[in-house]
Amino acid sequence: MNWYIFFVKTGDELCVKDWLNNTFDRETLYSIVPKRIVPEKKNGKLLYVEKNLFPSYIFVKTVMDFSTYYLIKRNSKIIKMLNYLNKEDLTCHRTIAAHNKQSAVTTVDKEELYFKKIPEEEMAIILKLLNQEEEINFSKVYTIESKVYVESGPLKGLEGIIKKINKHTRRAKVLVSLMGDQRIIELGIELIEPVGSRELIM
Known about the structure:
single chain, elongated
């Protein structure tokens, strides 16, 4: 089974996720909508808000074939599957398609051509960040001599993807790859002081 992404109408992510998980048994197909908890100030009050990690995206784990694809597409709120989005993929797609016109094409060949899975290394990082509720909660972070350390939380062990932290917004800018594209996402953090030091995160 591999992970795939479907693009749906904004605001309908959870509705579609529930439909998928009720339509298919978990051993055949499982879907998630990754979320993040981030701090926001409203009317002078600090609130903790839940937001979709990738708005309009639903992650689906299944053995994808044409039959499964068309069953999924029965839901009118699902717009499309994310497939060939960059020039490299499009070039590869056209090259394979041209080659297949000259030779016999199996069903497997067609499925691999049309259904692009999320690379395992990319999905592994996303899954590592999520808790059992499919959320990314706060990480406890501190700095020593401008180097960022994570004491606990989802970013523990993933310090290399942290690009910037902001003590005022209490957020970390994190670089992740998704379907070959690099994206910056903001995750909530709890700022702490390192043991034996009063250095604050700048």
